[in-house]
Amino acid sequence: MKVEIWSDVMCPFCYIGKHNFEQALEKLPFKDEVEVEWKSFQLDPTLDPSETKTTTEYFKEKKGFPDAQAQQMIGQVAQMGAMSGIDFNFEKALITNTFSSHKLIHLAKKYNKASEAEEALFEVHFLEGKNVGDLEVLVSIAGKLGIDQEEAQQVLSSNQFDNEVNQDITDAKNNGISGVPFFILNGKYAVSGAQPVEAFAEALQQTYKETVVPFKDISNGGASCDTDSCSI
Predict the structure, then answer these.
(1) I need a labelling partner for 206 at 20 to 30 A (CA). Which of 50, 66, 69, 115 fits?
(2) Is the pLDDT of residue 212 over 60?
(3) What average pLDDT does this structure show over 188-192?
(4) DSSP annotation string for the chain
């Protein structure tokens, strides 16, 4: 059974969704039969990779949110994160272009460490406040994952995996995916947003029992981010 997950490193709901999905999967007797494939998605590919913004600055400048609204939304997301065991540090988080971080995930996929790369990138971005578009930061993450740092440096300094990242984004468009996180379960069902652990468990169990047919959305929509904004 295969689960494809479209995600962006700077999406807080993707981090929450990852934790909830993994908690659900861990409880299931067929967990070792589930193959998870991480797919790239960029919420804002127009961002300059050489620049960073704070979360509040980004919401105000790019989304047009007044300061009070931005702070309210950040507070709500932080509460959701706490319920999933994530201690978001939005005051330190730096918003930037995430294309290079997706290249690192594809490199990690080569060594069957894509999930570990996703987790490391979320931690660096949301907890440590480091720049996930910075080459040195990404190479350091690769090293901590046991990936050769010279290879990581070479990949991130070239166009290697550019096509793979772009293909994931194209696949998202072809599947009608406009927000993340987005999960396609065995090509049959779709689950959108940061669903509760129980909802993921139910969807996984239902999918496991059935054969592969064109997917349909079996969720009621959860907290997610799209190219315009985040919604709860």
Answers:
(1) 115
(2) no
(3) 93
(4) -EEEEEE-TT-HHHHHHHHHHHHHHHTSTTGGG-EEEEEE--S-TTS-TT--EEHHHHHHHHS---HHHHHHHHHHHHHHHHHTT----TTT-EE---HHHHHHHHHHHHTT-HHHHHHHHHIIIIIS---TT-HHHHHHHHHHTT--HHHHHHHHTSSTTHHHHHHHHHHHHHTT--EESEEEETTTEEEESS--HHHHHHHHHHHHTS---S-EE-S---SEEESS-EE-
